[in-house]
Amino acid sequence: MFRDIHHIAVICSDYHVSKDFYVNKLGLSIIKEVYREERNSYKLDLALHDRYVMELFSFPDPPERPSFPEACGLRHLAFSVEDVEETAAVLEEKGIPVEKIRVDPITNKRFTFFQDPDQLPIEIYEC
Questions:
Q1: Which of 43, 92, 96, 110 could bond 84 through an S-S bridge, CB–CB 3.0 to 4.6 Å?
Q2: For residues 8 and 10, what is the distance between their CA atoms, to the nearest angstrom?
Q3: Which domains, and CATH codes, for the chain?
């Protein structure tokens, strides 16, 4: 039935701040950027290693996340990495605070979380 996950969509409160975060700090590449005048909204298609993975949207006055992090809906976005400690160090060098590294008690894999500019939890998970 399903082959793969096609993309994740994120709505941000400040388009330019979030675009800088995902492109310049996390290293996703821009596929296409469109300003939709009728909606006063940007849509930015982003890729990771040349694979389409995310849509970044801006809308005027989006509602805030109802609670953190256990609101109904998407809980977090997770990136697989080779080395969680090394990735966390790179993020912190870029001014992105990272939580303490933990170990998944079921898989024994290391992981941690950081946040995007709108406090969307983002996980890095060692594969």
A1: 110
A2: 7
A3: 1-61 (3.10.180.10), 75-127 (3.10.180.10)
